Automatic annotation (TrEMBL):
Upper taxonomic lineage: Bacteria, Bacillati, Actinomycetota, Actinomycetes, Mycobacteriales
Gene source species: Antrihabitans spumae
InterPro entries in the cross-refs: DUF222, HNH, HNH_nuc
Top-level taxon of origin: Bacteria
Family assignment from sequence similarity: Belongs to the Rv1128c/1148c/1588c/1702c/1945/3466 family.
Residue spans crossing the bilayer: none
Name used for this protein in its record: DUF222 domain-containing protein
Domain DUF222: 54-338
Residue ranges annotated for the HNH domain, each copy included: 352-383
Length: 443
């Protein structure tokens, strides 16, 4: 996936230690197995602390160097969290959180840092303490750090919720108004999101003020109980879910949802001969059988768009444009090809059609020079010292390009293969057209 520059001596020693640990012969007694599990957990906590220290020092040096060259404060931090994310095999969004966590632990909470080094607190529980004290001043955060983390016995044997409660309780004692301001500010973050779930399902999540969320849930429970009392065979949970859909969409039933769902499906799976999964943009893979059921839904309106794919590699056919901005057709092809943001380890949805090599540097508005990126990754690659270049590839190979960070580390981004097209030995396409027409007629 990536190629790094010259490794430091410390990186080599860490790699050697990892190889030694992985090479254990596994002949452990039950007692030794438990001891090793505990020792590895403490080692993970210590490694997380060292990662935080390295990340914070890296960011401080980069900002200081840019400040000496007269760069604005906003530009001093550009792209740093994305470098951290790539180095840790994480998305840019999580890289930003990891860097913020690192700077808080190293610069503001030395006792917490010591507890992590000693293996007393893992990264997640340390994150809880950092998160729950984020609204406090540096001085008050230091008090929480001393009160809860200076003595390892204070938080010993406490679970996640207990640690969270202790931080909130002490924070409220130190600065109650800050906690109130945080709660008021949180209302501005209310939102509704969706994300994939197993088995063709999805999670619809609403982040609401507590009183509103409790009211919505109580109302659905009350009305679902009334439906159950009338003899409905659905479970109470199923009825609550259906009521939610009906009331949000205004439809008579939860099944008749008039909305466009784009699906990429191979012709072999479409024609009922294959079981290869299809792909739903911003959702992920879906079983071919389930998609065929959707096509036969009485409420479905079908529209087919053919994509021409290399049958051996799954690479999408290339197209070009002479305009500076990506035309809709070319952008659509890029989205079909890339599916999600092309930055390694980023799972975000595509928001921008990006020139891999910018127009200012001579890059053309071509299929090969295009990449689908999320907003954060597109802005990150514009920071000082970042560059990208399409890879040389033979016709039919998957699209790929190489990202180079300011440190010289290189990361390769390769487009995922699309669904394999059906191989038919025919003289013309009339047979395929008739087969597709039969599918549409049956639907």
């Amino acid at each position: 996936m990536f190629e790094s520059g010259d490794s430091s001596g410390l990186a080599d020693r860490i790699t050697a230690m990892r190889v030694e640990l992985v090479g254990s012969d596994g002949t452990l007694t039950d007692v030794e197995s438990v001891d090793v599990l505990g020792a590895l957990e403490r080692l993970k906590s210590g490694c997380a602390a060292l990662q935080a220290k390295v990340a914070a020092e890296f960011a401080a040096k980069r900002r200081a160097e840019r400040a000496e060259r007269g760069m604005s404060k906003r530009k001093q931090g550009e792209g740093i969290s994305s470098e951290v994310a790539l180095a840790r095999f994480e998305s840019p969004h999580k890289g930003n959180r990891l860097l913020g966590f690192a700077e808080a632990v190293v610069h503001e909470m030395p006792n917490l840092f010591a507890r992590m080094l000693a293996g007393d607190l893992n990264e997640w529980r340390a994150t809880i303490l950092v998160r729950e004290t984020a609204c406090l001043s540096r001085e008050d955060r230091g008090v929480v750090d001393r009160e809860l983390c200076s003595d390892p016995a204070t938080l010993a044997n406490r679970g996640d919720n207990q640690i969270k409660a202790a931080a909130i309780k002490l924070g409220a004692k130190l600065d109650a108004e800050a906690m109130v301001r945080r709660a008021r500010k949180a209302v501005a973050n209310r939102c509704v999101t969706s994300r994939p779930a197993p088995d063709g399902m999805a999670y619809l999540t609403a982040l609401l003020p507590m009183k509103q969320a409790v009211t919505v849930h109580a109302t659905l429970m009350r009305d679902a109980a009334a439906v159950v009392a009338k003899g409905d065979e659905r479970t109470k949970s199923q009825i609550m879910a259906d009521l939610l859909v009906e009331r949000v969409t205004g439809l008579a039933t939860a099944t008749a949802v008039p909305i466009t769902v784009n699906v990429v499906l191979s012709d072999e799976a479409l024609l009922g001969r294959g079981s290869e999964a299809g792909y739903i943009p911003e959702y992920g893979p879906a079983p071919a059988g389930l998609i065929r059921e959707w096509l036969h839904d009485d409420d479905a309106t079908l529209q087919l768009r053919r994509l021409y794919v290399n049958p051996d590699t799954g690479a999408l056919t290339a197209v070009e444009s002479t305009s500076r901005g990506f035309p809709k057709g070319l952008l659509r092809m890029t989205r079909f090809r890339d599916r999600i943001c092309r930055t390694p380890w980023c799972d975000a949805a595509i928001r921008h059609g990006d020139h891999i090599v910018s127009v200012e540097e001579g890059g053309g508005t071509t299929y090969d020079n295009s990449a689908g990126l999320c907003e954060a990754c597109n802005y990150a690659k514009q920071a000082e010292g970042w560059s990208a270049k399409p890879d040389v590839r033979a016709p039919g190979e998957l699209h790929s390009y190489t990202i180079t960070t300011p440190t010289g580390h290189r990361y390769r981004s390769t487009a995922p293969p699309l669904e394999t097209p059906l191989r038919l030995r025919i003289r013309n396409h009339s047979q395929v057209e008739r087969m597709v027409a039969d599918i549409l007629t049956a639907a």
